[in-house]
TrEMBL record:
Name of protein: C5a peptidase protein
GO BP term, pick one: proteolysis
Disordered: annotated segments: 27-109
Transmembrane residue ranges: none
Keyword tags: Hydrolase, Protease, Serine protease
Taxonomic placement: Bacteria, Bacillati, Bacillota, Bacilli, Lactobacillales
InterPro entries reported in the protein's UniProt record: Peptidase_S8/S53_dom (IPR000209), Peptidase_S8/S53_dom_sf (IPR036852), Peptidase_S8_Asp-AS (IPR023827), Peptidase_S8_His-AS (IPR022398), Peptidase_S8_subtilisin-like (IPR050131), Peptidase_S8_subtilisin-rel (IPR015500)
Family, similarity comment: Belongs to the peptidase S8 family.
UniProt source species: Streptococcus agalactiae
MF terms in GO: serine-type endopeptidase activity
Biased segments, Polar residues type: 27-43
Length: 279
């Protein structure tokens, strides 16, 4: 009984001490209240707009339009025609875009005045308006008589004088027919030595790499097989060299024989060109 009374007394004492401590903490230590401050939006003055711009993400279609616009900016543009400008153009497309640096070459080597170039091809428009010289006084052949003299010296009994630009034209195909395809030879000759009138109603004026050179237009067509074809253009090569050509262009669209299968006279024509420094 004594032990039970002592345990009960101890329990009561411990409970009393706990109550005292709890009351002490509550009375001596006031509860701390945390105040959460909500930041207030900063007023923006109407007179001072923000320096930051809001960017809207591009959609795929917007990006495509941007690329297309950039490409158009880089592409050569035709000269704009307004009410104050004449409806004619003196510009060539090379004035706007010259990736091959032809103008630089012309500044160093000239535009071909006094030289003769030959084109051996399937057909030509020998009377095209782009066949002209700006300054006839510098031409290698001043007249038809000059050409006939050169032909006689080399035993050439064929070929015609067309004008100051086309000093020589002949059909080496020996078929007596008018060329059906005149586009390719005319096209190639224009790139090489075209010289259209100084003013045109088209957006651009045609001017070749050597616009002041005279042309030898030599038609060669496949009529009686590839071997005969090779003999014909071999004769054209020899005639071009004898008439003073330093450049000969042959860009055949049709199949041709491999060098090993060429007739001997064709191989000799190539050797002759090499010996004369003709390219």
């Amino acid at each position: 009984v004594k032990l039970a009374i002592e345990l009960m007394s101890t329990s009561i004492l411990l409970n009393a001490q706990s109550d005292i401590k709890a009351n002490t903490v509550t009375e001596d230590t006031p509860a701390t209240e945390q105040t959460v401050e909500t930041p207030q939006p900063t007023a923006v003055s109407e007179e001072a707009p923000s320096s930051k711009e809001t960017k809207t993400p591009q959609t795929p279609s917007d990006a495509g339009e941007t690329v297309a616009d950039d490409a158009n900016d880089l592409a050569p543009q035709a000269p704009a025609k307004t009410a104050d400008t004449p409806a004619i153009s003196k510009a060539t497309i090379r004035d706007l875009n010259d990736p091959s640096q032809v103008k630089t070459l012309q500044e160093k080597a000239g535009k071909g005045a006094g030289t003769v170039v030959a084109v051996i091809d399937a057909g030509f428009d020998k009377n095209h308006e782009a066949w002209r010289l700006t300054d006839k006084a510098k031409a290698r052949y001043q007249s038809k008589e000059d050409l006939e003299k050169a032909k006689k010296e080399h035993g050439i009994t064929y070929g015609e004088w067309v004008n100051d630009k086309v000093a020589y034209y002949h059909d080496y195909s020996k078929d007596g027919k008018t060329a059906v395809d005149q586009e390719h030879g005319t096209h190639v000759s224009g790139i090489l030595s075209g010289n259209a009138p100084s003013e045109t109603k088209e957006p651009y004026r045609l001017e070749g790499a050597m616009p002041e050179a005279q042309l030898l237009l030599m038609r060669v067509e496949i009529v009686n097989g590839l071997a005969d074809y090779a003999r014909n253009y071999a004769q054209a090569i020899r005639d071009a060299i004898n008439l003073g050509a330093k450049v000969i262009n042959m860009s055949f669209g049709n199949a041709a024989l491999a060098y090993a299968n060429l007739p001997d006279e064709t191989k000799k024509a190539f050797d002759y060109a090499k010996s004369k420094g003709v390219s």
